[in-house]
Amino acid sequence: MEFLERTRLMRLRLTILCMILVAALHAATYTPESLPIPYLQDKRQYVSNPDGILSQEAVDSLNLWLGEMEKAHGVQTVLAVVEHIEGGDTYEFCMALGRKYGIGSKEQNTGLIILLSTGDRAYYILTGRGLEGTLPDAICKRIENRQMLPALREGDWDEAMLATVRAITRYVDGDPSLVGTSDFDDEDDTIALMFFVAFMALGIGLIFFAIWLEQRRKSYCPSCHQYKMKKISSYTTKNKRLGIRTHHDTYRCSHCYFTKEQHWDEDLHSGTGAAAAGGALGGSFFGGGGRSFGGSFGGSFGGGSFGGGGAGGRF
User: Fold this and answer.
1) Cα separation of 138 and 199, whole Å?
2) Whole-prediction pTM value?
């Protein structure tokens, strides 16, 4: 009886363990829809490493190289390293991922997807239609055989990806027909600068227009309705007990000689209106609140397409 009880408990434990293993395996299985794409949150992050298979040093190096390749040659890349993908077919996974996000620009179709599934022991390099001349199937296969596979067989995932991207970069650098995004960035910067200059010119123009309107208002004569009033005298008096300074201005119309006086008080303990306005203007245009150049923003894909070019295999 005791033997049967121990057997039953052992079977129960094995069942629970199997369920846990199956659940863990299922949780680590990715689809094109569930694969995290860090590039969408930060355009400097080309590597998807959700299972932590690659070291942070390798991820940083890959992101740097892939960023330089996009800027110099317009090749937009997603590099993913995971334990398992649904179905285990890296080609179908890459094609579905490319269709979902439209990796690469619509004009050049220079998208690139590099996928490694360590648990499925499978890999694939998928090239956009515009990259098939630079990285034909035979070249992709050669890179995999000579650069990727030796490291994969040693279980050195970092070196497998680093060596692959280094080799791809050499081929891309050798194709002068690939246009970098820096050219488009320069054009965008020029347009942005033009808008900024136009905005500043409009703002300065409005300021001068407001000053002109104020001067015109002051020159209006209520007697003859001409704009001939001019200031002929001005002086100030102080009342220290009340803490105010009184301004006395006298205006006379050169057409009908109508004369009027204006008086206005200023708090001795506050700055002048002109100084306050100048400080506000300077703070608004040259203070904090401007564009920040230290951070980064999410990237976006340009609608690139894939025709199935590239190569892959298992190890």
Assistant:
1) 53
2) 0.61
CA 6 to chain centre: 60
84 backbone dihedrals φ, ψ, rounded to 5°: -140, 145
Q: Which residue has the tokens 């001068």?
A: 208
Query: Which tens digits make up the pLDDT trace of 210-220?
Result: 898 888 888 88
Distance CA(112)–CA(132), nearest Å, equals 10
- Tell me the Ramachandran region of residue 52: left when phi exceeds 0, alpha when psi lies from -120 to 50, beta otherwise: left
Q: In the sheet that 122-128 helps form, which strands lie side by side, from edge to edge?
A: 47-48, 76-82, 111-117, 122-128, 306-314
Q: How confident is the model at residue 159 (pLDDT cuts 50, 70, 90)?
A: very high
Question: Other C-beta atoms within 10 Å of 16: how many?
Answer: 10
- Hey, which CATH number is domain 31-183+298-314, 3.40.50.300, 3.40.50.720, 1.25.40.10, 3.10.310.50? 3.10.310.50
